[in-house]
C-alpha cells in the first residue's frame, strides 16, 4: 500500500486492481467516482471498479485473489459469494526479490533496557516458570505459582508463571508429537525471559521426565529443579516442595537487573487473529514497516501461520535468500496441503465467519494481507515448529494458523515479544514474552481500549501514514522490551494461552 493518506469512501490499492476497499459503509446507489454502488458495501469489503466477466481474475494489490463467479458489473459488491478460488499459476521466482537487511553500524542501533543472560542472549522479562511434563500435574503447578503473586521483595522478577498444557500422556511415546512437545517445553525453559524453572511430573507419564531431560540436554541445577509427585508424597506435598524451590530461586533471579542493550537482541513473533478487510491495509503493513526497521537494527522477526500464507507463497519464495530456503518453505506448504486435504479448514479456501464479516473473501485474500506483517526485507531461514531461531533478520517458522499454538511455537523458538494485529478484536496475551496488540481499525481500538495497545485505524482514517505508524510501532516495541507493560499484561492475560501444537494421535 502506498504511503499516502487515503481520501474518499474507497481505497484503490494499485492501478492494476479492478476492486477497491470501502473505507466506510457505502449505501446502494451511492456514487463512488465514476461508479455507482449496486448493493450496500460494508466497510472493509470490496467494490468492483469496472465490469468483471465470469471467470476473470479479481485483482487486489495487483495480485489474483480469486475469480469472478458471475458477470459482475461495475459497482458490484465483491465478496465470498462471487470471488471464487481456483488454481492460480504461480511464478516462484526463487530469490529474485531477495533484499538483504540494510544493517546499521552497531554504534547506531537502537537500545532498550533488557536482562542480559550468561549465554549472551537478552530477555525482555525476568520470570520464573513452573512447567509440567503431563496434564496430571497441572493443578500442582497452578497452586505453586499462585503462592507468589506478591513479589514485593523481588522487584526485578516480573512473575512466577505456570505453563499448563493438555499433553504428556495418552499420546505416542516417540515420534513427531513427542518431539514437538519436548522442543516446545525445552524452548520455554531455556527462554531468555525465563530466569529459572521448576518442572513438575507425575512419575508414570509417557513424557518421561528423565527421557525429556536427556533428549533435550537439560540439566538440573541451581535454577532448574524437578519434582515427581509420586515420589514426594502426592499433590499437597508436591505443592509445598515446589513453593520451597521457587523461594530458593527468587533471590538469584532478583539479582539480575535491566541494563542498556542493543535492539539486535530483540526477536518479535508476528501474529494476526480476527483479521478484517482493513488488516492488510493498516496494521499488517505498518507492522511490516516496523519489522524492516527492526531488522536494520540487527533484530529478528518470525513470520508464521503457514496455512494462512497459502495462495501467495510464491511471493515469499521470491524473497528467499537461496533456493534451499525457498524449497524448505514450499515443502512445508505441501505438507499442509496433504495434512488438510478433504477437511473443512480455511486452507481449502473458506475463511472463518469473523474474517468473512470483516471483508475477507477467501484464504488468498487473507494471506495477501497477513504476509505484509513481514515487511519487505529478505527471508533468511525457514524453521520447523519451536525450533531455536538462530538467524537474524526476517525468518519463517512453520506453525498452524491458530493463534495460541502459533505464538507458543514462536516463543519456544526464542521470540521475546509478540506483535499481534487484529481487526475483529482478539484478547490474546502471552507469557513469558508479552503481546503488543495492534487494532486495524479505530472502532475496535475504541471499543476494546483495555485490550488494544496501538490504533492503526488512523491509517484508514487518513490521519497517519504507514511509515509514521511503523515508527510508532517500533518505538512501542522498544518500550515494551524495556519493561513497559502491555494491555494484556495489565489484564493478566497469557498464562492460559500456552498451547503446544497437539499434532499427534490421542489414544
Q: Any idea what the radius of gyration is?
A: 24 Å
Helix content: 25-40%
Uncertain residue segments: none
Structural class computed from helices and strand pairing: alpha/beta
Mean pLDDT across every amino acid position: 95
- Tally the helices: 15
Largest sheet: 7 strands, parallel
- Main sheet: which strands, in order across? 19-20-18-17-21-22-23
Write a brief structural summary.
By secondary structure, the chain is α/β, with parallel strands linked by helices. Helix content is 29%, strand content 19%. A hairpin with a 2-residue loop joins strand 6 (57-60) and strand 7.
Walk me through this protein's architecture.
Helix content is 29%, strand content 19%. It has 507 residues and is an alpha/beta fold. A 7-stranded parallel beta sheet has the order 19-20-18-17-21-22-23, with helices on both faces. A 4-stranded antiparallel beta sheet has the order 1-2-5-8, with no helix packed on it. A 4-stranded parallel beta sheet has the order 13-12-14-15, with helices on both faces. α1 crosses α5 and α6 (283-296) crosses α14 (466-481). The longest helix is centred in the middle third of the chain and has 20 residues, at 235-254. It is globular, with a radius of gyration of 24 Å. The N and C termini lie far apart (49 Å).
Amino acid at each position: 500500500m502506498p504511503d499516502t493518506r487515503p481520501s474518499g469512501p474507497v481505497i484503490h490499492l494499485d492501478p492494476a486492481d479492478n476492486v477497491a476497499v470501502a473505507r466506510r459503509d457505502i449505501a446502494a446507489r451511492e456514487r463512488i467516482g465514476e461508479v455507482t454502488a449496486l448493493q450496500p458495501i460494508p466497510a472493509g469489503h470490496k467494490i468492483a471498479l469496472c465490469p468483471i466477466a465470469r471467470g476473470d481474475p479479481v485483482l487486489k494489490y495487483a495480485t489474483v485473489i480469486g475469480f469472478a463467479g458471475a458477470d459482475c458489473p461495475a459497482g458490484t459488491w465483491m465478496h465470498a459469494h462471487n470471488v471464487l478460488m481456483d488454481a492460480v499459476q504461480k511464478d516462484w521466482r526463487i530469490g529474485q526479490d531477495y533484499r538483504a537487511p540494510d544493517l546499521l553500524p552497531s554504534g547506531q542501533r537502537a537500545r532498550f533496557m533488557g536482562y542480559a543472560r550468561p549465554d549472551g542472549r537478552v530477555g525482555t522479562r525476568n520470570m520464573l516458570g513452573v512447567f509440567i511434563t503431563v496434564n496430571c500435574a497441572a493443578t500442582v503447578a497452578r497452586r505453586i505459582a499462585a503462592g507468589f503473586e506478591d513479589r514485593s521483595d523481588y522487584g526485578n522478577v516480573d512473575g512466577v508463571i505456570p505453563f499448563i498444557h493438555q499433553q504428556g500422556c495418552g499420546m505416542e511415546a516417540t515420534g513427531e508429537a513427542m518431539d514437538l512437545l519436548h522442543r516446545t517445553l525445552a524452548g520455554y525453559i531455556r527462554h531468555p525471559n525465563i530466569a529459572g524453572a521448576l518442572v513438575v511430573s507425575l512419575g508414570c507419564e509417557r513424557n518421561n521426565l528423565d527421557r525429556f531431560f536427556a533428549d533435550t540436554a537439560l540439566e538440573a541445577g541451581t535454577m532448574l529443579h524437578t519434582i515427581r509427585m509420586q515420589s514426594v508424597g502426592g499433590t499437597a506435598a508436591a505443592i509445598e516442595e515446589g513453593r520451597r524451590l521457587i523461594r530458593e530461586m527468587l533471590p538469584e533471579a532478583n539479582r539480575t537487573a535491566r541494563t542498556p542493550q542493543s535492539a539486535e537482541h530483540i526477536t518479535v513473533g508476528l501474529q494476526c487473529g480476527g483479521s478484517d478487510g482493513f488488516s492488510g491495509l493498516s496494521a499488517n503493513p505498518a507492522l511490516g514497516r516496523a519489522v524492516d526497521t527492526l531488522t536494520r537494527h540487527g533484530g529478528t522477526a518470525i513470520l508464521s501461520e503457514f496455512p494462512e500464507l497459502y495462495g501467495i507463497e510464491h511471493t515469499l519464495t521470491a524473497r528467499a535468500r537461496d533456493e534451499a530456503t525457498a524449497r524448505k518453505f514450499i515443502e512445508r506448504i505441501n505438507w499442509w496441503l496433504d495434512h488438510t486435504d478433504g477437511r473443512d479448514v480455511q486452507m481449502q479456501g473458506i475463511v472463518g465467519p469473523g474474517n468473512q464479516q470483516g471483508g475477507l473473501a477467501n484464504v488468498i485474500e487473507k494471506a495477501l494481507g497477513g504476509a505484509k506483517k513481514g515487511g519487505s526485507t529478505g527471508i533468511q531461514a525457514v524453521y520447523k515448529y519451536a525450533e531455536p531461531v538462530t538467524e537474524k533478520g526476517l525468518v519463517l517458522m512453520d506453525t498452524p494458523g491458530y493463534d495460541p499454538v502459533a505464538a507458543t511455537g514462536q516463543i519456544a523458538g526464542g521470540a521475546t515479544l509478540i506483535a499481534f494485529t487484529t481487526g475483529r478484536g482478539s484478547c490474546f496475551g502471552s507469557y513469558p514474552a508479552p503481546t503488543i496488540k495492534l487494532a486495524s481499525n479505530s472502532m475496535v481500538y475504541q471499543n476494546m481500549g483495555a485490550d488494544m495497545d496501538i490504533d492503526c485505524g488512523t491509517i484508514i482514517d487518513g490521519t497517519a501514514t504507514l511509515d509514521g505508524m511503523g515508527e510508532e510501532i517500533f518505538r512501542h516495541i522498544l518500550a515494551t522490551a524495556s519493561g513497559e507493560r502491555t494491555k494484556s499484561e495489565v489484564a493478566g492475560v497469557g498464562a492460559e494461552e500456552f498451547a503446544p501444537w497437539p499434532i499427534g494421535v490421542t489414544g
